[in-house]
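Next comes a single protein record:
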Amino acid sequence: MSTSGCNGERRVGTAFATVIACDGFCLIDYSFTLPTIANMKTCLIANTRSGSWDRWEPELTRLAASTDTPILRESKGRTLSQLLDQARQSGCHRIIVAGGDGSLSRVVNQAINYLDEIELALIPTGTGNDLARSIGVHDTPVENAWNWAVTRPTSAIDLLKVTNGGTTYIVNAATAGFGGIATTDVASEDKQRWGAIAYWMTAFFKMASLPEYKLRLELDSEEVELSTYGLAITNGRFVGGGFPVTPTSVVNDGLLDVAVVGVLPMIDLIAVGVEFALGQYDQPDRVTTFRSSRVKVKADPPLPFSLDGEPAKSIEATFTVLPNALKIVHAPEPPAISVSEHGDKAVV
């Protein structure tokens, strides 16, 4: 096949991209698209009642103006549901969310019936930003994250459906037992000062007032009974502002990960957290892990849960993977997304 005329810029669908000849094929490199995606309207959803909005408003307002992106502000008189309806009616195909896991989760739950019609991008202005770490948009200046949000293509990632009397959807993780309490209690300033270890130390101090839980897990291919102080059920890799609770998770593999911390002496529990924070993950005698497309959790006494940072309590809950349910923008080399052989390149 000839590659004559292949090099240069070419329109692909609604986007411009750099075209590179390679072994008779044309590789379309979307990392060199124009500043905005042609013919795709974007909008920014902002929760003005969030504590972080005042800090980020000037820069996000400037960035939005530079790309003609309207800002839809959530306030006392304008609910998130109303803003999303407004976005759809105005033709916004890509919705940029400024916030963390909780902000993104709220948008997903409101838009669950039409997620296939929209794309999402995340500007990590929350306190934990754990999903942002998994998709590679956390440790980058906000201006870079914004440029990615308005220029880069998306990948489809999984969601977790949680059935617990009602139904909710989470983008990153559910933590339970001491982990569920620590996720909501770890202070923002401690996350920033101490990083991953802040989550585990907060969890450790909660253990003294928590019981041992008798746990039954019903997975795809097995049922297990364990005693634990806490567990995590994850889509992403991190919880609590960067603690790598399931460090090999992939957010688009169609599977969830489960990590169960055994009932251990206090000195061993401290060691688990420190070693995980330092990247020493191989601890099968202390942390039991599973991978499944579904898990049903039964616990006695009832487990306190945190679902993407929101507290919940349950005796019994079922978590089910919804594969490739959410289209989201990510960094060029996301740590927890399995990409194709050519990454962001498409063969034509």
In short: The domain at 164-323 is CATH 2.60.200.40 (Tumour Suppressor Smad4). The longest helix spans residues 53-66. The chain is about 25% helix and 40% strand. Residues 1-36, 184-197, 341-348 have pLDDT under 50 and may be disordered.
